Amino acid sequence: MLEILKKTYPLTASDIDCHGLCKLSALLGYLQNMATEHAELMCLDGAGLMADHNAVWMIARLDLRLSGPIAHSEDLTIHTYHRGVGKSPVIFRDFDLFRGDEPIGEATMSWVLADVDERRILKPGAIPKLVGSPKPAVVKDLIPAKIKMPPELTESMTRAVRYSDTDINGHMNNTKYADIACDAIRYDLCKGQFIAEAQINYLHECFPGDDLLILKAQADNAHYVCGTDAEGKVRFEVRLALAK
User: Fold this and answer.
1) Listed residue (195, 190, 106, 191) closest to 143, CA to CA
2) Does the model's pTM come out above 0.85?
């Protein structure tokens, strides 16, 4: 089994935004697809886990860092691998990103396994295939952190969760949170800048029919966005740092 999965993607028109750059949501889509494909190669995909353990993968946090923009005419190469199983219920998956042959960034996703009916977090050590799956000798030490939101947030918009936001698990797909955050900060007006850092904390699932209040703030040279439900519960938090 492959310790590291490596693939190159020619960016398509649907990946590109109004600035001629790869959308954050499109980039996260490629990371998600790579993670899924690697899990399938290790027989740890959703179908197998559902059949054997009634479990699904759920992303908890993301930390992405880019040293430069990825433009429409460039190929994106991604390497991905996971760090193995420890005492924590969290599994870390790392990514190295290349623009052509040039290193352009890195990312780490933290995932948990959850019982599909109870949404209860499962211990990965109880799944033999996961414990015995291969990992590289050297992995990253980046840990996606809890986002510290500024105390003062202002309303940006309301956003209904729709069918088009959903994925195979029935909830809003992780890439959609990036689109909501970019809409909230009016990234369409940020010509000449690219997203150099992106952190997302996925706190509670969002389902079709949910109405979200989207709040935002600027602090410490970054944009902060969070979504709350009708009861005021925070569903997700995002931090975006832009660079020229």
Assistant:
1) 106
2) yes
Tell me the pLDDT band of 1, cut-offs 50, 70 and 90. Answer: low
CA 95 to chain centre: 11
Q: How many CB atoms lie within 10 A of CB 93?
A: 22
Residue 142 contacts residue 10 (beta carbons within 8 Å): no
**Local structure of 75: helix, strand or coil:** strand
Q: Where are the beta strands (DSSP E) in the chain?
A: 5-10, 55-66, 75-82, 91-99, 102-115, 121-122, 154-160, 194-202, 211-219, 222-228, 234-243
Provide the token pair at 160. 């209904």
Minimum mean pLDDT range among 36-40, 62-66, 192-196: 36-40
Helix, strand or coil for residue 137? coil
Q: Strands 121-122 and 234-243, how do they pair?
A: unpaired
* CB proximity list for 226: less than 8 A, separation 6 or greater: 149, 153, 214, 215, 216, 234, 236, 237, 238
d(CA 131, CA 134) in angstroms, rounded, equals 9
Residue 104 to residue 22: CA distance in whole angstroms: 13
3-state secondary structure of 46: helix
Cα(57)–Cα(160) distance, integer angstroms: 24
Q: Is 36 helix (H, G, I), strand (E, B) or coil?
A: helix
> CB within 8 A of 210, min separation 6: which ones?
160, 161, 229, 235
Instruction: Give residue 59's pLDDT.
Output: 92
**C-alpha to C-alpha distance for 48 and 56, rounded to whole angstroms:** 9
